[in-house]
Write a structure and sequence with these properties.
The complex is a heterodimer of chains A (625) and B (186). Chain A is built from 23 helices and 21 strands. Chain A has 625 residues and is an alpha/beta fold. In chain A, a hairpin with a 6-residue loop joins strand 13 (411-416) and strand 14 (423-427). By secondary structure, chain B is mainly α. The longest helix of chain B has 14 residues, at 39-52. Classes of the chains: A alpha/beta (625), B mainly alpha (186).
Amino acid sequence: MRINCSNRTSLKGRSMKAAILIQRWYRRYVAHLEMRRRYTWNIFQSIEYAGEQDQLQLSSFFSFMLDNVTQMNGNGPDLISHLLDSVVDPLTEEVRQLKYEQIVVSESYSGPRLSFPLSVTDTNALLSAFKEEQTLHGKYVLQLLYETKKFLKQMPNVIYLSTSYAKEITICGDLHGSLDDLLLIFYKNGLPSAENPYIFNGDFVDRGKKSTEIIIILFAFLLLYPDHMHLNRGNHEDHIMNLRYGFTKEVMQKYKTHGREILQLLQDVFSLLPLATVIDNKVLIVHGGISDKTDLDFLSTVERHKVVPFLDSFVSLEPPEPPREELEWQQVVDILWSDPKNQNGCSLNSFRGGGCYFGPDVTQALLQKHDLCLLIRSHECKQEGYELCHNGQVITIFSASNYYEEGSNRGAYIKLGPELVPRFFQYQVSRSTRKLTLHQRVRVAEGSALRALKEKLYAQRSELMAAFQQYDIDNTGRISTSEWAQVVESVLRLDLPWRTLRPRLARLSADGNVEYGSCFEDISPGEPIPPVTPNLAETLYRYRTDLEIIFNIIDKDHSGQISIEEFRQTWKLFTSHLGVAVNDQTIDDMARSIDFNKDGSIDFNEFLEAFRVVHKLDVKEQQQG
Amino acid sequence: MAPKKKEEPKPAPAPKPPEPEPPKEPEFNPAEVKLEFTAEQIEDFKDAFQLFDRTPTNEMKITYAQCGDLIRALGQNPTNAEVMHVLGKPKAEEMQVKMLDFEQFLPIHQHICKAKDRGTFEDFVEGLRVFDKEGNGTVMGAELRHVLATLGEKMKEDEVEQLMAGQEDANGCINYEAFVKHIMAG
């Protein structure tokens, strides 16, 4: 008996010990996973903001170009007119409308056929079609955009709404081309209607692959329920942003025949989107934020369609610049680009290249000035889909879930009733994430973030190596972890936990120092690149996106080709601006070598494709099958 | 939890060694902890500390609730009881509110790092072997779930779920050596 007793006790005791041991290890495992999740998020966010800084670089290049082109005696590429030319369409409104009506849609087209004025049948048809991955025919896109433009023209800059007509208003943030998120919102919250009004707070397009579908749906509902559907302009509702972040490409791919005209119409429509919405004279909704100069009364008087935020930043207006125009530009840019910060004051938002960082005091002052109680904005991705700051006076609402990567963040929307107390609803689209465990999701997101980070390292290899070598006087190939972290932080200018990341990026030698060359080992050029010096190659890797934008601007008819001369001149200007020493001969050689069929024109997409990097480990994985 | 042993009234004054209750631990005194970390290690900890700092102005402070997570993220695996001990046995409502800065964190972390009996791979496998009824290298997933949720420092249902996700085979069995490798690699 006794023996049995003690055996049982012993077993229980051992089970207890075992359980505690497992639980300890489990908790360690979870904490480690959490740490990885956090730095993954930091990586994505810093890279995104750094990308916005590149945009600034681009605009400064355009300024440089304008300054220098005159010196080339008109031999430079006609970039300026390309940039400044908005739609030069001599057609009158009536002629245009007729032209669209006359577009013939073939019998074999099985997608929705819209009829104006739109009805619920049309919006339902659109939703069904897009769920089935169908594309709306270019004719209807043009007609839709045309009607939207007509409608928006008569809207004011600031729209005043009231909650007395409906129970609650739903406010959504950035969608960035994620149709899944929009459909999920409609599924959870119902379609827009007189009883179910919506406000979409900008950034409908770019990054995601279904930007076209999103704006079609949003504009369709806008026309169908003009009093209950409201769209604010975001900083991505902009021609140059679309060139960089993918919307232009998406349109041209989906609409080979009508793409160019669609893009031109879109420019007009975007510029006509209202800038702000006010609910019950108490809640202000804008895409980015505010500055200490923001004034809603002045904003109401701005000719918003004339303000082209990005271009205007470098195009020199005819001197003397009318001060009013500059002020108008300032007001609009602040609304679209600003971010809240925690410290008081208002400082220039250098990361974004436009707008301000505004502090709690700025918020307080503006709310008081206009007798408001709350500012709702979007523009920044938040882990939980929303975030409060400035003592609850500012809410950020972001509606694109999994924005950086599968499982990276939730999306959310706000419901606001007459009592003006916001209620938050979160969601997360999960096609494949449902099948992945938390661990797998973190691993996928982390892998993606680290790849992006390694590409950044590779793109600034020579600068990094030079800085590393400054610490490595004896040329051992090794430096301390602190030195390594210091160099990487100062060259890349990304505020990340570099020491914690080090094991994922670089190898330690036996003596505990970092072998700094090892951080470049994993990356190599994708395809054999045109004969260029390593210096030039690195410049190409780094500024690939900028060059893509520039070439796309030159290539007005979106044919994918530009002339050799245009290529040469652009390249010369660009490298000169960057301070990269390249002689004329090298550029000529390069131009000649990539004119593969010797017809005097260059397929720049093909050229740029060569400068994509490849991650060796990925290649190995693929090879192993 | 195993039921507490009933104390029998003993007339004799001879003191029975208190068992199985552990000896009463003295309160944790951070001032008495000698820091033995290298400068490099401290830099590593600072880096990770910043990652957990959620203060809006980056004050280099974390909540009490995060302290355990940070210690674990840095590679230690204390029990919850050990964490509460070094935090000075705070009340539940204090965990999300009270903060500590980096200087306060170091002695706490040092104390945990010095603790013996961290548990190796073999210990861990041995622990799981306890539940290996047939001695064939596998445990029943259902039994393990039950144990983790009812014994020791109980885990919540969703925590157990997360731990076990994808580990059981078609028969609901877990090969525990693989399981241990999976946990220790994470």
